[in-house]
Amino acid sequence: MPRQLTRRQFSFASATAVGGAAVLGPGALPWIKRADSGRSRRNSLGIALVGLGSYSAGQLAPALEETEQCHLAGIVTGTPAKADSWLAQYPHLEGHVYDYGNFDSIADDDAIDVVYVVLPNSMHAEYTMRAAAAGKHVICEKPMAVTAAEAQTMIDACEAAGRSLHIGYRLHFEPHNVEAMRISRERDFGRITYAQTEFGFRLGGSADQWRLKKSLAGGGALMDVGIYAIQAARYVIGEEPVSVTAQEVKTDPVRFAEVDETITWQLRFPNNCIASSQTSYALRSERLFAAGNSGWLELRPAFVYGGIAGKTSRGPMDLPQVNQQAKHMDGVASAILAGKTLSIDGHEGLRDMRVIDAIYESIRTGQAATI
Ligand code: NDP
């Protein structure tokens, strides 16, 4: 029988997959933190959230109430009213509030070990590099950059500064996705040779939001949620794609004048494995399907914060729901504390950016693009 993780067996440790070489320079870890919110700060890293939008406020800050190896230690915002309301809710942040102008002085703030960049996509590179120059470890939201070339400069900057760079790939801590990775790796159904991955939603909101502006978003649905479909195809097939063909359609060319709305693409992997994928800002779809020659797995929904469900050709998956953001941040913090990087590092983010670049190239040329 293939091993399937049960609710009880699934643990934080099983999802972290800590690996790789030590990346931290000497003196990187202020081990004893001020006990400013009542919890012991020993062995807990201080995280500063940069950009207090919906993901920081709705997901990350609440998750930092549940983490054990990191805690909210600072905020960076361009909106004074947000600084006031966050200080009212988190009084221990007094003295650890920054704006985009004085951001670099975070270098002198020993309460902050890690800067978590949660800004519009085109701002990720600048704040990642400034954070590393300030001597901080970095977590950067997906997509890590707006081009692969930009992603490489971020990796170089963090390596030069001796600071770790991790990407906000929370699904590497989500039990159903972790189980899909395991099934592929351990070949429960033989080698996975075909995958279908899709993630789309209807983007509401005003026409002047940053997600609709190329200068801030870099791209549209592909950068925002299509990246999950790329990731999933890569982690269930377990190899790196070599080429892609892609097609774009727009059902609303006015609203989506600057960024992509709906894209389908086909990734070709070595050994004739194929993934067929889709993303959209116009329609909701969310699925991960993968097949080998003796069975299949399906997650639907596959990528949301909660309620992910899975089954295989052998039956349903019985796995717990977890706070993905808390697991992700604790996983990164524990790796940093151990002097290691996780597999969800800048190089992993770069692999996805190379695929994104190739998808846009294929749309532009109408030809298959090499990755
Ligand atoms: P929001 O629009 O809700 O928040 C972005 C924040 O960035 C703003 O509230 C603002 O914060 C700050 N900001 C600074 N400059 C600008 C600018 N010129 N225009 C707009 N905002 C600016 O976005 P999200 O929180 O949804 O997304 C932020 C990042 O997180 C994106 O890269 C996105 O892809 C990623 N994300 C990841 C998710 C995941 O599941 N991993 C889920 C959701 C988002 P302030 O006022 O404090 O300066």
Could you characterize what this model shows?
The protein has helices at 12-16, 54-63, 80-89, 124-133, 148-161, 175-185, 214-217, 221-237, 324-337, 346-365, and strands spanning 45-50, 70-76, 97-98, 114-117, 137-140, 165-167, 194-200, 243-249, 262-269, 273-280, 285-292, 295-299, 310-312, 315-316, 369-370. The chain has 371 residues and is an alpha/beta fold. The protein has two domains: 7-170, Rossmann fold, CATH 3.40.50; 175-321 and 341-370, Dihydrodipicolinate Reductase, domain 2 (2-Layer Sandwich), CATH 3.30.360.10. The strands form two sheets. The chain has a nine-stranded mixed beta sheet.
Secondary structure topology:
Elements: H1 12-16, E1 45-50, H2 54-63, E2 70-76, H3 80-89, E3 97-98, E4 114-117, H4 124-133, E5 137-140, H5 148-161, E6 165-167, H6 175-185, E7 194-200, H7 214-217, H8 221-237, E8 243-249, E9 262-269, E10 273-280, E11 285-292, E12 295-299, E13 310-312, E14 315-316, H9 324-337, H10 346-365, E15 369-370
Parallel strand pairs: 1-2, 1-4, 2-3, 4-5, 5-6, 7-10
Antiparallel strand pairs: 7-11, 8-9, 8-15, 9-10, 11-12, 12-13, 13-14
Helix pairs in contact: 4-5, 5-10, 6-8, 8-10
The protein binds NADPH dihydro-nicotinamide-adenine-dinucleotide phosphate (NDP).
NADPH dihydro-nicotinamide-adenine-dinucleotide phosphate is lined by residues 51-56, 77-79, 82, 118-121, 141-142, 168, 170, 210, 216, 224.
